[in-house]
Write a structure and sequence with these properties.
One of its GO terms (molecular function) is iron-sulfur cluster binding. The protein has 521 residues and is an alpha/beta fold. Helix content is 46%, strand content 12%. The protein is built from 22 helices and 14 strands. The strands form three sheets. Strands 1-12-11-10-13-14 form a six-stranded mixed sheet, sandwiched between helices. It has a four-stranded parallel sheet with strand order 3-2-4-5, with helices on both faces. Helix 18 links the parallel strand 13 and strand 14. The protein is globular.
Length: 521
């Protein structure tokens, strides 16, 4: 087994089984790191908790819902507005977040009364919203508050509202993936089958595992509409609470993100006999294959082929332009869950990028199996890396780009590695034929941007020293010098020099043209 030992993790010997170097001689079973296990104490994981996986990833993208966390305010704040789950109801779910704001006294005496008061207050504050999801946190789970009983009382007093309860405290699983599972099953158990939808097509699907990041869902829905397919509900990006209660009437569950939402598809198949079809909206090849599969299922292959031909003719030349300039560029693909294996092979095949490392923070063994099998030999595969391991990997691999989430992305910028946000996108959407070209454009801009190249300039060795005449009050107190006297003199000299620098800069770098007068570069 080609385990990879990080220098920074030698003091934690268990970590060696969580990183593997993929070599040409080994089969998949020989190149598989351990995954989806409890984080080893001391490694300072960047994982999210099960509550985060339930609320932030799955629940919050529902658009016409008051999302209320029963717990401390910090839990709510940490899962609010960090992804671009846009919606067509003026982004209500992005603008507002709700919490019962539990404090120490509630831990001692209970918080059911304050929860009920908060539920009623929230509905009165937003009378046009009649649906609510309540998320359990570690604090409310530990003291045993009966959230369902409180919600039932409110629904009896306010018959026009409906409330969904998700019992997924942070400690409910090794990572946020445990929360994905819990909210999937809870929704099927408590809400599916309660609403009868209006069927308008012979071809009806649930679009599952789609979160409408920067409009991803709208791109795919356009293809479905052109094929004559009715999207009954989207689980859960731009999804409507009541539409999702009618999932049992679909003819097919079309699944995009298998890591977060395969559970509900499997349950709908067992309980209602609805087939599951896994698709991929990223990349020309995978997307074309996905549309063909859906067309074949409904017997409308000709409609799928017409879309593929039209979109490919329009966008393939632009993709080829970017691919010619990205050949051989090295990428660390560290997106987290299903994007690991959705993107690993196709960015190599269609853009020419070399994937030198893959990782997942919360994925299962199946995610690593698919991800590793689709990347090139020599790639470093890591499960649940911490910040130090990520830094060490980047120093060793020297990637031209890292595609990851915001936290490791900001760390990468500190060592001058450009990054693209895999979770919330930079300039999405990235799904669909046009979206894939947009993704290639963002990669190209990140790799070739002059701004990133300027980051390698060491200004500490500039002819004009940045620390000249820099005196702090601590320095002065150490020297027992009167700050008022020295500061006045030093400040005058420094500001005079700074003014001359500004004049020189303005002379060498004139102002940009006014709006409307920019010329093409």
């Amino acid at each position: 087994m080609p385990y990879h030992e990080f220098e920074c993790s030698k003091c934690i010997p268990e970590r060696i089984k969580h990183a593997v170097d993929k070599t040409p001689a080994e089969n998949l079973s020989d190149a598989l790191p351990l995954g989806y296990l409890n984080t080893i104490p001391g490694t300072l994981s960047e994982r999210g908790c099960a509550y985060c996986g339930a609320k932030h990833v799955i629940g919050t993208p529902m658009k016409d819902v008051i999302h209320l966390s029963h717990g401390p305010i910090g839990c709510t704040y940490d899962t609010w507005q960090t992804k671009r789950y846009i919606s067509d109801n003026d982004n209500f779910q992005l603008k507002y977040t709700f919490a019962s704001d539990m404090k120490e006294k509630h831990i001692v005496f209970g918080a059911e009364k304050v929860l009920k008061d908060n539920i009623i207050e929230a509905f009165k504050a937003f009378p046009h919203i009649k649906r609510m999801s309540i998320y359990q946190t570690c604090a409310s789970a530990l003291i045993g508050d009966d959230i369902k009983a409180v919600a039932q009382e409110v629904m009896e007093e306010m018959p026009d509202v409906d409330i969904f309860i998700c019992n997924s405290p942070g400690f409910a699983g090794p990572s946020q993936s445990g929360g994905h599972h819990k909210i999937n099953i809870a929704w099927v158990n408590d809400k599916v089958g309660q609403v009868e939808p209006k069927i308008t097509s012979d071809y009806v699907i649930n679009y599952v595992g789609e979160y409408n990041i920067q409009g991803d869902q709208e791109v795919m829905q356009d293809y479905f509409k052109r094929m004559g397919i009715q999207v009954l509900s989207t689980f859960t990006g731009n999804g409507s609470y009541d539409d999702l209660r009618a999932m049992h009437r679909a003819h097919l569950n079309v699944l995009e993100c298998a890591r977060s939402a395969e559970y509900i598809c499997n349950e709908l198949r067992k309980r209602y006999g609805i087939p599951r079809m896994d698709i991929d909206g990223c990349g020309f090849g995978p997307l074309a294959s996905s549309l063909r599969k859906i067309g074949l299922f409904f017997g409308i292959e000709d409609r799928a082929e017409a879309i593929i031909e039209e979109e490919t003719k329009r966008w393939k030349p632009e993709l080829d332009w970017y691919a010619a300039r990205l050949q051989g560029k090295k990428v660390c693909l560290w997106p987290g869950g299903s994007k690991l294996w959705h993107w690993a092979h196709v960015i190599h095949e269609e853009m020419g990028l070399e994937v030198v490392s893959v990782y997942t923070k919360f994925g299962h063994q199946g995610d690593m199996e698919k991800g590793i099998s689709r990347c090139e030999a020599g790639a470093l595969a890591i499960d649940d890396p911490n910040e130090l391991e990520g830094l060490e990997a980047m120093y060793k691999l020297k990637p031209d780009l890292i595609i990851t989430g915001k936290r490791p992305g900001e760390v990468a910028k500190k060592i001058r590695v450009p990054y693209l946000n895999a979770h919330a996108y930079h300039n999405g959407p990235y799904k669909g034929f046009e979206g894939w070209v947009r993704f290639a454009r963002d990669i190209y801009n990140a790799v070739y941007s002059p701004i990133h190249k300027l980051a390698f300039v060491d200004i500490s060795k500039d002819a004009i020293s940045t620390d000249k005449n820099f005196v702090t009050r601590q320095m002065l107190s150490d020297k027992d010098i009167d700050p008022a006297v020295v500061n006045s003199k030093e400040l005058h000299e420094y500001t005079g020099e700074f003014d001359s620098i500004k004049k020189l800069r303005n002379k060498e770098y004139p102002k940009f043209p006014q709006k409307g007068k920019l010329t093409a570069v």
